[in-house]
Amino acid sequence: MDKKLKDFQPNETLDIPVLIKSADVRTAQDSSSYIALVFTDSSGEITGKLWHASQQAIRDFTTGTVIQLTGKRETYQDRPQIRIRHMQVLPSADQDPHAYTPVAPTSREALTEFVEQTIAGIQEPTWQAIVRWIFKAHWDAFFTYPAAKTNHHAYEGGLAYHTVSMVKLAQKIAPLYDAVDPDLLISGALLHDMGKTRELTGPIATQYRAEGNLIGHVVMIDEEIVRACDALAIDSHSEAVILLRHMVLSHHGRLEFGAPVLPQLLEAELLHQIDQMDASLTMITNALADTKPGDYSERVFGLDNRRFYQRRPLD
Amino acid sequence: MDKKLKDFQPNETLDIPVLIKSADVRTAQDSSSYIALVFTDSSGEITGKLWHASQQAIRDFTTGTVIQLTGKRETYQDRPQIRIRHMQVLPSADQDPHAYTPVAPTSREALTEFVEQTIAGIQEPTWQAIVRWIFKAHWDAFFTYPAAKTNHHAYEGGLAYHTVSMVKLAQKIAPLYDAVDPDLLISGALLHDMGKTRELTGPIATQYRAEGNLIGHVVMIDEEIVRACDALAIDSHSEAVILLRHMVLSHHGRLEFGAPVLPQLLEAELLHQIDQMDASLTMITNALADTKPGDYSERVFGLDNRRFYQRRPLD
Amino acid sequence: MDKKLKDFQPNETLDIPVLIKSADVRTAQDSSSYIALVFTDSSGEITGKLWHASQQAIRDFTTGTVIQLTGKRETYQDRPQIRIRHMQVLPSADQDPHAYTPVAPTSREALTEFVEQTIAGIQEPTWQAIVRWIFKAHWDAFFTYPAAKTNHHAYEGGLAYHTVSMVKLAQKIAPLYDAVDPDLLISGALLHDMGKTRELTGPIATQYRAEGNLIGHVVMIDEEIVRACDALAIDSHSEAVILLRHMVLSHHGRLEFGAPVLPQLLEAELLHQIDQMDASLTMITNALADTKPGDYSERVFGLDNRRFYQRRPLD
Amino acid sequence: MDKKLKDFQPNETLDIPVLIKSADVRTAQDSSSYIALVFTDSSGEITGKLWHASQQAIRDFTTGTVIQLTGKRETYQDRPQIRIRHMQVLPSADQDPHAYTPVAPTSREALTEFVEQTIAGIQEPTWQAIVRWIFKAHWDAFFTYPAAKTNHHAYEGGLAYHTVSMVKLAQKIAPLYDAVDPDLLISGALLHDMGKTRELTGPIATQYRAEGNLIGHVVMIDEEIVRACDALAIDSHSEAVILLRHMVLSHHGRLEFGAPVLPQLLEAELLHQIDQMDASLTMITNALADTKPGDYSERVFGLDNRRFYQRRPLD
Amino acid sequence: MDKKLKDFQPNETLDIPVLIKSADVRTAQDSSSYIALVFTDSSGEITGKLWHASQQAIRDFTTGTVIQLTGKRETYQDRPQIRIRHMQVLPSADQDPHAYTPVAPTSREALTEFVEQTIAGIQEPTWQAIVRWIFKAHWDAFFTYPAAKTNHHAYEGGLAYHTVSMVKLAQKIAPLYDAVDPDLLISGALLHDMGKTRELTGPIATQYRAEGNLIGHVVMIDEEIVRACDALAIDSHSEAVILLRHMVLSHHGRLEFGAPVLPQLLEAELLHQIDQMDASLTMITNALADTKPGDYSERVFGLDNRRFYQRRPLD
Amino acid sequence: MDKKLKDFQPNETLDIPVLIKSADVRTAQDSSSYIALVFTDSSGEITGKLWHASQQAIRDFTTGTVIQLTGKRETYQDRPQIRIRHMQVLPSADQDPHAYTPVAPTSREALTEFVEQTIAGIQEPTWQAIVRWIFKAHWDAFFTYPAAKTNHHAYEGGLAYHTVSMVKLAQKIAPLYDAVDPDLLISGALLHDMGKTRELTGPIATQYRAEGNLIGHVVMIDEEIVRACDALAIDSHSEAVILLRHMVLSHHGRLEFGAPVLPQLLEAELLHQIDQMDASLTMITNALADTKPGDYSERVFGLDNRRFYQRRPLD
């Protein structure tokens, strides 16, 4: 297999196709222009700077362009960066950004099949109907959007991957506690972050939309449930709908995390904890991926800026 | 004018009609039953206990009943209470609970006229249409519900009175700052607490409904706006609607107060401050109403348990 | 099956054997003595008061005594209490306190077998040796102590039941995340609360020992690991031991919860979350056990004083 | 009208007189000296750097000097900066720093007249006498000092402008609430920040004085009231004086904001809220002044680092 | 020596003179009147209730009266109380309240001499002059007032005792650190709480005065320093005075404890820590005074509600 | 005496031997390599950068090397730095790092004698035996390790110096309070930070060891006491040992500072306060050492980022 961007060692030269994930034109201290670039392929991303950028270069090397990159991997202030030797825009036949972005570690086919089976397995007819209606309306976005702009599952397909991971946790944990209604827990897990498909701008190089900031994905998914009820002629004030709406409205778990109401159902508290569990384990695993045995990871912003220890082999 | 419940001095005897606001049957230390009562009329409320209550008394003296109360106002643990001598259920012709509850200090007619004129004065057509549609759907509840279960404006008609007070503040403050859009501010003020008509159970002896706890009035009014758009064929993702939804969603001002999003518009921050201003001034005024010059009020729960000072006459 | 203490309805008379869980002699307002009692059997506990208690009664009805209780279940200030008609100390043949205390919902045999198999299943030899040594030293206490004085699993055998529940969660969750070392997670889960056997006074009517307050169970289990190393000639500064000690030292998850260090291993963070998950689900389930459909539970102290909703049947 | 500093677009060349607001000599990475400059005129301020600064340049281009600036407006790290081509000290006849600083949006004459009328309108004689005495002693400073070093109203005359804005709010709000004493509220508003004239160093390029940090403007204005009483033979322990002192001592509203006592008067709580309202609206308006429709402002430090949304035109 | 109030054991009868520290007339559940009394003598205080109090009793047994008390010490809800058999007002010749209040454990003569020598020992002339002037103005109050209404040193003379304890700490600690100016530290310690003589109502049965709540003792002592400067023709803006004012203004150490400014001098931080040290040690010692070896004290409100352990004898 | 590193004024040239405290090789913006250096000698430390570093330079100028440094002291971004002209590794005869590091202001001999006498003065035999055993095991480390990596006493011998300062405070304060057991307080002070000898890597250029992060020095010293008991055949559950363990376990004073238990003994609370007192006074004194009269120090991280004022001479 061809070597990818993050496979190269410090001081190793590279000559590979990559996607420009972002390109900011800035002014250097000597008042010339340079471009601050983020390169990416399926292995991850590294920054680089194109010094003394010509007007032509500024026009060519824009966000979303696939280029052939020649240079060397170096280290600047403890982080990797590419010392650029040459950049060449690839012919349009090779301009497939999706081929150069990290993707969920499970195939879309596998995720799709899992989601279809999970929805079909919901016994409570109201919840199944609502979940099915919302998934139908957001099907493609659900499988392509990231779960967040940064922090965790911030890649194409991350929303589906995170959701499926949570459903799997739910399926394992629910049977251990008689009082837990698996239907309610799994329906909540499937829907909880679906508002992200309207809060964010898209699958790649995603940003928060103004509407996303002003309304928030928590309320947006609640709105979807209300619309689903209207479309399906379900009473939106029935016990079943109120319970489901409470699941998504309270899933951030604390008011200071943006939940308009605190979890007041056994399943709502559990959904919040499952969400945190999958997010935490993912963030720690990512942080440790770049850490050598015996060292500490970078600080993890989403976990109180803690650093995590990469253990050494046991004797 | 006849003397009301709170007009009597300590140790003064009374013989007046009052409403039983609540009646809890409890067991005394000697294992007999007694009823813990809250009496109310338009002047306010005082508690009392009916010792050694018979089964007949327990059946007669229930919440919502108007009775003739004979007794004496006394003081128990620094609070007023009625030492009951006799209680007599009044004939059904006199059973009008509304006549015995505190009401808003402005007449419903005056409030109605003010609200109608305010709605008619909204220049922006989308906001006027939405406000008008929602008020029409909740007209009677708006003018009869309290603004809260306790704390402030917790009386019949309190929701309308609090809303109108906020609109008046908005009308005075907006002209002082060029950047403020009075239409947006006033539309937000009119709608901000309308979800209370579904969060609470009714105008008198109000409680939180289960649905009220699980969804919350902040999300409920947002849902109303969305439904208004659907009914009026307004695009719920248009700039105008997003701005209005943001006003009501952020009006609690802080995440820890249950706002799903923080105020991100000049008018949204101002709406939150106007809400707090009217609530604070009302709570302090109420607390000082029972405080003698030179003394301190009871602690005000909604204001960090602070006590307020009743000033003495200046020389 | 005979009716138990909590099976009786309000105002129903009872005549059953119960254990006196605590008995405080106090002075009434009329200066006579009374005994404030907590009665318990395997169904739970209810309070009662013996008024005008004689010196004989004070000598007879002490903590830990099994009596025949005749009386009526009543309600005082929204909580159940027994109106005592008669109390009679049972003959010494019937003085078996264990027969009248709530016990873990799984048999000791089942728990024992599960623990033995789990220990045998630890692959890493150092961890298995340490876990085995500590369990051997605390075998009986582990299966009889409660997991806490109040809050959750506060009954005889609660420590084993809580520990086994956590191990089961660990066994289900670990396979979903490649990066998790199940051996470390399960070893930590088995040991994490073992210090309670020295922090608390015993299986029944447990209290914190002075030593328990001054040292704390977190440090006490760490001390046990160090002693196990000394006994087994294992280097207590080896990587394997440091990892295991970190698991127990950090399992409270936050400094303000009494963890001397924050979790810095993937498995340590997960252990903390599993501990919280089992505790939360147990506390909520207990709170809802006494709550009617459509009502809210009592406030749950260990979960930010939240109340939880008992759902109604869906149509 | 001549173009001002902030009127130029990115990449536009400029040749205008400006004031050097601050000038720090620093060492570049190549060990040469450069001057980090802040230029200002009545339109606002922009930074710039003079590279390879000679000893002569370091002597010439100091804080408070008016120069002719030739250069180009560029963008560096998302903020505007001037690429300097030439700087020339203007002849002493043109050295009028006041001509190049932002000033309050209302003329000093208008502010003066408003303040005089407001003081004359205070009915309570003790308060009027104290306010008049203090204003007389600080007359010129009151109309020239800023209200703060940064955050809001941080320009020459800002103190008077902020104070007048608060008085106007007070005049509008007080009549809406019967319980509010407008005299006390307005007297408090007039005095509340007067201690700034001793806490800060002066109207231009203001800093905190050591005395300002060690005593604080809250205590300093209280000291002024005490001295006014001594000068006017008013009993500083009379009810009227205690009330006025409490207004200024509590106006920061919370202990953690540096109030030595919490507001305990209706008017004191309201004064605090009016202060926050004017400060918030000013900060948000300033932040939005540089923001394009549909974009978010820079983070506003004084408002929890929130960003505010610049709305787009409605259809 | 005669037995004092707190020398009697539970269930022991007593017949001794005591002072009525407070007397509240209340209504019993059977609607008769009773008096809730606090008795005190130099050994401490105990509560009691006079049931079925006649109008004569209500007139006789008022706060500040010395009576002959006959009764029995009992225990009610874990606290001691007196079961009253008889109360008799003592003749006016015996009405000396000071004889029945706890006093500082050091004689006023010793405290006076220590304070005089300490003031004389201040080398810096400005500080000595100011301290001397303020002590002269408050001499008697300083030696009779308590240091607080509750918590610690809440007895006649407590202010002087607490102040002297802090000066002794200062005298011991200052020589260990070269950078500490003992003159500044000791001058600050002498003055720091002097504002209490105006914040509180008097030496016995002290309360907060309205002025005390509205201004606070921290600002009150600052005001005294300013007045001392005016009287002594010292420039109140000189470095020496600013330093001394900062010492008293910052001595609460944190904004949330009511300090208008944080400590910004080495000596100011140290003064705050010495204040806390003396207060903490006193509160803990008091709490342990009633605690048996091996037991835990009551919770100490001023120390995060912690309980403290009374150690057992070592072998 | 020869001039040391921090004796040189800005722009003064220097030619002195110094120790390289740290040396990080980085890539400049022009992609050449440079070394970011920290130089130190007994007077303190200053940074410098070696631009365009050759491979030979990178090999030569490593952490722990003593060099002859020629250059000039300059100022970069308000901090001193050395503009390097030449660097020369000194011959191995001059390679004595200890000669170039700051040391405790008291000689090791004096500290040693003080510690020996203090240990000998402990009257309680169990505590003396344990303290003696632990000091014997860590004797050399105790006198050479720093007390911390940064903040305060972060130099060779700092642990002993900080410990001795605390013992001196304890010896002065204990006699002022009868209730304090000086033996327990002094034993706790001697041991409290001894775990640092295992938490940190060594006396010079110290770092936290992985074991130090995962276990923490608070638990490490507790472990030492347990081992001492085992070695000395002392019952580790005796009252005397529990008290001593509690002293070290609670000395951080608050859970959020990493104490697994809160102080529950009078002496434990006092030990915590003495620790804070010595740390605070040392941090403030250090911060003021570089501050000119009338100026404010840098912000002190360990004291809420406060700045401290360097007072001017009094007239």
TrEMBL record, chains A, B, C, D, E, F:
GO terms for molecular function: exonuclease activity; nucleic acid binding. Pfam families: HD, tRNA_anti-codon. Residues 159-280 form the HD domain. SMART domains: HDc. This is HDIG domain protein. Gene3D superfamilies: Hypothetical protein af1432, Nucleic acid-binding proteins. Keywords: Exonuclease, Hydrolase, Nuclease. InterPro entries: HD/PDEase_dom (IPR003607), HD_domain (IPR006674), HDIG_dom (IPR006675), NA-bd_OB-fold (IPR012340), NA-bd_OB_tRNA (IPR004365), YhaM_exoribonuc/phosphodiest (IPR050798). PANTHER family: 3'-5' EXORIBONUCLEASE YHAM (PTHR37294:SF1). CDD domains: HDc, YhaM_OBF_like. GO terms for biological process: rRNA 3'-end processing.
